[in-house]
Amino acid sequence: MAARLAQLRTKAAQAAEFASKHGGAYYKEAMEKNKQYVVQPPSVEKCQELSKQLFYTRLASLPGRYEALWKEVDGVKQLWKNRKELKVEDLGIATLFGVELYAWFCVGEIAGRGFTLTGYKV
PANTHER family from the xrefs (predicted)? Predict the structure, then answer.
């Protein structure tokens, strides 16, 4: 265990050294590449204004999202009504989608338990 801790410390020191050497250049490059998104002059008031604009813009998009949700639900209802006419390909895609959802649920549960399979940390 002590050897693993020492190895982790060494890796962390190497990562910190790399970041200190190359972090400034990366920052300058990123800022130069994305300067069209920077509001001048940068101030706390402007940040608060932009934050409010983002919040209320997203809030305003909810009715459109709500309508899109119900269109999808109606589409699923129509598919369910005409399920006798479905092709094997469509059923296969739906099955794969369901398996993927189930797998994400299982991965989420495992992550929530701290990446242990039984729930007990060893």
Answer: ATP SYNTHASE SUBUNIT
